[in-house]
Specification:
The protein is about 65% helix and about 0% strand. It is mostly helical.
């Protein structure tokens, strides 16, 4: 389905500014990837936090994302417009929970999250199609983040024995 290009003026509304990933969701091609790229420098700041506090912040980002994405979606009149990328932020941050800070893991986490978010293996695909509203916008990326995080942790664990 083709979506109309979003005007930059949307960023004047705080809920759109957040939902559109500080403007990264306005990328003309692959806004989800652009949103995830925007999440990387934010992760670099968040990873300085204690793991428990990091998790608390990620839970908050995910929960508030339900409201942000729903409000932005309603104001645009489009459910889950591709420009809404707050869910990508949350998904990437979930992927990176308790991951050692090394560039290889930051990059691999990015690739794994994008893979799960784009391919949408079950149950991600089912959730994407069947859950509506802000929760529907967020849940597929949250589960993609969990699945990518599990894969990333398994790879990190296996690399210690290679």
């Amino acid at each position: 389905m083709r979506h109309k290009k979003l005007p930059i003026s949307l960023l004047k509304k705080p809920v759109h500014f957040l939902a559109l990933g500080f403007g990264s969701g306005l990328a003309p091609k692959a806004p989800g990837t652009a949103g995830t790229l925007m999440a990387v420098p934010l992760f670099l700041l968040l990873q300085l936090l204690d793991t428990q506090f990091y998790i608390a912040v990620v839970v908050f980002i995910s929960l508030i994302g339900i409201y942000i994405c729903e409000q932005s979606s309603k104001l645009m009149g489009v459910h889950d417009h591709p420009g809404i990328v707050w869910d990508e932020f949350a998904g990437y941050f979930i992927t990176m929970i308790a991951v050692p800070f090394e560039w290889i893991w930051v990059l691999l986490g990015f690739v794994l999250f994008r893979f799960f978010d784009i391919v949408k293996p079950q149950p991600i695909g089912w959730l994407d199609k069947n859950v509506k509203g802000g929760l529907g916008i967020m849940i597929d990326d949250v589960i993609a983040g969990v699945m990518a995080g599990i894969c990333l942790h398994l790879i990190i664990w296996a690399s210690q024995y290679a």
